[in-house]
Write a structure and sequence with these properties.
The chain is mainly alpha-helical. Among the domains are: about 140 residues, no CATH class; about 50 residues, no CATH class. The chain is about 60% helix and about 0% strand. Strands 1-2 form a two-stranded antiparallel sheet. α8 runs antiparallel to α9, α11 runs antiparallel to α12 and α13 runs antiparallel to α14. The radius of gyration is 22 Å and the shape is globular.
């Protein structure tokens, strides 16, 4: 049993919210692909901000197309329902949210969307639910709906960089790099020291084939948050492509120590060794990669190449 830090009520170890007062008990830790810290918003809106004053017409149209006509951030004086009155709903959403996160991580996007829509129907002003729904639509390559969900999240929390970065990722996937850069710049204005901003700027520069700029942004992202495996993986891969072998080896070795995709990481170390002319070590790394993942085609081809 875990005691609530706010009211002291004991609850199951797996619970994410206190059934008595609604206080968060644990941080939500979804799978890597959909890693978000989820904080459910229990307040409702008393009066709404005029969205036309701060959202562009395209964003307003996208929100309205999804049915979010009056969505807005809660006013500073708004009072929501007593969290104690929410206890029955909290028990339900704990389970629904956990299942939705599991579905997202496992690629079951339709099931995830069904669960997330259930949560949104309880309160459409749950900021993080819109971010997660946007992620699910991106996984389905339904970018317009994803952009709508991210716009809803941005309207609910205009001080957060996350909706702008999520929007930028969707725009990059669409090939709309100029608009993506605008969103990244806005995210940087809100959170100038965010490793996520540097990571997304690096991805955009890489798409534009500005590889030196991309490399610098990935290095900045790693410097700001050394535990971000995505930034290290992108840095290692790009360093390898640019034949910056010392940097690539350092990042792949770090990723291996962090147990990140070990088969792919051994393959990367094999490529470093091969480019240095150390074929014996390269073969050993490729064989290790294949032992971990016998279907890794790149490692098979590389081993056959150096064995001739």
């Amino acid at each position: 049993m875990a005691a609530c830090p706010a009211c002291g009520t004991e609850g199951p170890e797996a619970a994410k919210f206190c059934a008595e007062c609604g206080e968060r008990l644990t941080a939500v830790d979804p799978p890597e692909r959909f890693r978000r810290t989820v904080t459910i918003l229990f307040s409702d809106v008393v009066g709404s901000t005029a969205l036309g004053e701060r959202l562009d017409p395209e964003t307003l149209a996208r929100l309205r197309s999804l049915g979010y006509v009056g969505i807005a951030a809660p006013s500073g004086n708004a009072r929501g329902p007593d969290p104690k009155d929410m206890a029955p709903k909290i028990r339900v959403l704990n389970d629904t949210l956990s299942r939705a996160m599991d579905d997202l991580g496992a690629g079951r996007t339709d099931q995830a969307l069904t669960r997330l829509k259930e949560l949104s129907e309880i309160n459409e002003r749950w900021y993080d639910i819109h971010l997660l729904m946007g992620d699910a639509y991106v996984a389905k390559r339904d970018y317009e709906r994803a952009l709508g969900e991210y716009a809803a999240a941005g309207a609910l929390n205009p001080t957060s960089a996350a909706p702008h970065l999520s929007t930028a990722r969707a725009l990059i996937a669409q090939g709309n790099l100029d608009r993506a850069l605008q969103r990244i710049d806005e995210a940087a204005r809100l959170e100038p020291d965010s490793s996520e901003v540097a990571l997304e700027r690096g991805r955009l520069y890489e798409r534009q084939e500005q590889f030196d700029k991309a490399l610098a942004e990935y290095e900045k992202s790693v410097r700001l948050n050394g535990s971000d495996l995505r930034a290290r993986a992108r840095l290692g891969d790009l360093a390898l492509r640019l034949r910056k072998l010392d940097l690539a080896e350092r990042e792949f070795s770090t990723l291996l120590a962090m147990k990140y995709r070990p088969a792919d990481t051994h393959y990367g170390l094999g490529r470093v060794a091969e480019l240095r002319g150390d074929l014996q070590r390269a073969a050993a790394e490729y064989k290790h990669a294949l032992a971990l993942n016998p279907s890794l085609a790149d490692a098979k081809a590389a081993l056959a190449r150096i064995s001739k």
